[in-house]
Specification:
16% strand, 15 helices, alpha/beta, two-stranded antiparallel ribbon, eight-stranded parallel barrel, 373 residues, 12 strands
């Protein structure tokens, strides 16, 4: 909801009918406007956009009504089980002093706070409209879900989304001699269905430049931008760098933001991999129309503890609903050995997302056996 409600940059293509999809967003009037008989805290000035908003289910959602009544974004998010408070500070929390210095409750909250500062700085250098224009000239979007489905059908084992990752907060540097293009080419040459590229700089030592380099290198595998998305600006920016899919984390994004980001992705032709950790998050996501790809993370983003039984537990409880809707499920984290992958497959997983390096030779051997890696 930070993007949808607090931002002044809603792109009309995400809200208006097809006839408005190529319009540029008009300026926003701060204050009280009346739309459909409702006084709202922020609205567009053009009648066409106001009409589109008035008839849009997002604009009429419970969250927007709550926000209009004075509830904060953090209060609305907390009611949905989200434990990440948004601070919107002008500098990194660790760089403050006194009352200005914030102490996060866990690493995920630290990452989100840092990401708020990073995105704010990036947007100041390259405004949303410039990024949207760049995204329109990006290479054509490739079929991420189609690649996963084809690999699973062809090999009879979960399709591999191979991760290009230099470091992580939990393990530190994973690969000193890090060449994202060489790694991605090796993955593709050995049959990976898709490639995931970490773009967070501060905590994972990734970059959007790595994503762009891999896309421009001739690698044909669809690319997932693995980023901590908190603002639609990041989705457009990822597309401008050649991403075919984007990660959306339910533990970070309230329902309305998930719906909005999903709509932006569909507008761009991209796939959204929506990641969940527990039953409550999964239930939230299953209530959203248009979800095609869900990732079940066995790693707690708060504690960094791995429990591979998490995927089986959630699939046992909600597998029927997932299958009825034709949603593809990706197993994430802790899937290291052949037994781990087989365990995830027996739970109903069609793909796995894994870092394949010398640190994890067992999964490499498993994939080689089936000519997948």
């Amino acid at each position: 909801m930070e993007s949808l409600l607090a931002g002044a940059h809603l792109h009309p293509a995400a809200f208006s009918p097809a006839s408005l999809s190529r319009c540029h967003p008009p300026s926003v009037v701060r204050g009280v406007n009346v739309v459909g008989g409702r006084a709202v805290r922020c609205a567009y000035t053009k009648d066409a956009i106001l009409y589109a908003l008035e008839h849009d289910e997002m604009f009429n959602s419970e969250e927007v009504v709550q926000w209009e009544s004075g509830k904060t974004i953090n209060t609305i998010a907390a009611a949905q089980g989200i434990q990440i408070s948004r601070r919107c500070r002008p500098r990194y929390p660790s760089e403050g002093s006194g009352d200005d210095k914030a102490v996060p409750r866990h690493i995920l909250e630290q990452i989100v706070w840092d990401k708020e500062v990073e995105v704010s700085q990036r947007k100041a250098k390259k405004p949303l409209m410039n990024v949207i224009e760049s995204s329109e000239h990006a290479p054509p979007v490739r079929d991420f879900i189609g690649a996963l489905t084809a690999a699973y059908t062809r090999n009879g084992v979960p399709a591999l989304i191979a991760e290009v990752k230099k470091a992580s907060p939990g393990r530190g540097v994973l690969r000193e001699n890090f060449n994202p293009v060489e790694i991605a080419q090796a993955y593709e040459g050995n049959g990976a269905a898709c490639i995931s590229i970490f773009t967070d700089e501060k905590h994972f030592q990734g970059s959007f430049e790595s994503l762009e380099m891999v896309r421009n290198s001739g690698v044909k595998c669809p690319l997932l931008c693995k980023e901590f998305i908190i603002d639609s600006w990041q989705v457009y920016y990822a597309r401008s760098k050649g991403a075919d899919a984007i990660l959306l984390i339910a533990a970070v994004l309230p329902d309305l933001d998930l719906k909005y980001m999903l709509r932006v992705c569909k507008n761009l032709g991209m796939t959204a991999l929506i990641e969940v950790q527990d039953e409550r998050e999964l239930d939230r996501v299953l209530k959203i129309d248009g979800v095609e790809l869900i990732g079940i993370n066995n790693l707690s983003l708060e504690t960094f503890v791995v429990d591979t039984s998490n995927t089986r537990m959630l699939m046992e409880k909600r597998g029927d609903s997932i299958r009825d809707r034709g949603i593809l499920v990706v197993g994430e984290s802790g899937l290291i050995t052949p037994d781990d992958v087989a365990y995830a497959q027996s739970a109903g997983v069609s793909a796995v997302c894994s870092l394949v390096t010398p640190y994890f030779p067992a999964i490499s051997n498993y994939m080689i056996q089936y000519n997948v890696l």
